[in-house]
């Protein structure tokens, strides 16, 4: 894909990427086996493991978790009222969309307790092993402590396009707005009204500015990380992309990410059957 060539000009030491359609990987760039820190892209993997636990019956979306009145679904969708980096409740349940890494640590502990297995092991057995994600590990916080490769995350993205880990019904629910109408901040991109979120997945909606492309479907979902990483899935385009870098997110990334993603959308829309850059 010609649009992937632009990554060579990014101000980073290392970058790798893959673009997928329903037919598989249609373009790649860089060393796709190299392992990178994921930062908050970790939450996608953790959320998927929690959804597997729901499917297996270890927990339920309505299981009480976090502050009084909050459930597992509230934690997954950042609607529990828990602060970003502490377990203090700073708002009422389902009053605001407060992005919380601490909430994902609570989720991991809940699954660990109910399933009777360390959460990093559960993540490996429930998500990584079935998808062949051999270079992925949760080495720290469930909110931001995983590391992985483009190859592994491409396998994860492929499962989003054609779900195998969980039922199509639960997968569709996870990428649908939960507790609609909540306002909140997307780190680095300001306050959005509303700030749509699914069960662990940020949903693009009509957010602007945003790290995805203006031409993306409002149903596009995914996550970006402060490690300079992102993964998106566009259900209408039937495509997904993974980009990992070794430079922390900052002012450099905002225009490049949005412009690059728009180039991908344009190229995929015009000619979906393309090869490796």
Low-confidence runs: none
Mean pLDDT across the residues is 96
| Count of folded domains | 1
CATH architecture: 3-Layer(aba) Sandwich
What global shape is seen?
globular
Kindly estimate the percentage of residues that lie in beta strands according to DSSP.
Answer: 15-25%
CATH superfamily: DD-peptidase/beta-lactamase superfamily
Number of helical runs? 7
Kindly state the percentage of residues in helix: 25-40%
| Sheet with most strands | 6 strands, antiparallel
Could you tell me the radius of gyration in angstroms? 17 Å
Q: In the CATH hierarchy, what is the class?
A: Alpha Beta
How many beta-strand elements? 11
How far from one another are the termini? Answer: 5 Å
One letter per element, helices H and strands E, the order comes to: EEEHHHHEEHHEEEEEEH
Strands in their spatial order, largest beta sheet: 2-1-11-10-9-8
CATH topology: Beta-lactamase
Class per helix and strand makeup: alpha+beta
Structure description:
It is globular and about 50 Å long. It has helices at residues 42-56, 72-76, 101-115, 119-131, 150-161, 168-174, 253-270, and strands at 15-21, 24-29, 35-37, 137-138, 146-149, 184-186, 190-192, 202-203, 221-225, 229-234, 239-245. The longest helix is centred in the C-terminal third of the chain and has 18 residues, at 253-270. A six-stranded antiparallel beta sheet has the order 2-1-11-10-9-8, covered by helices on one side. Strands 3-5-4 form a three-stranded antiparallel beta sheet. Strands 6-7 form a two-stranded antiparallel sheet. The chain has seven helices and eleven strands. With 277 residues, the chain is an alpha+beta fold. The model has no long low-confidence stretch (mean pLDDT 96). Helices cover 31% and strands 17% of the residues. It has a single domain, classed as Beta-lactamase (3-Layer(aba) Sandwich), CATH 3.40.710.10.
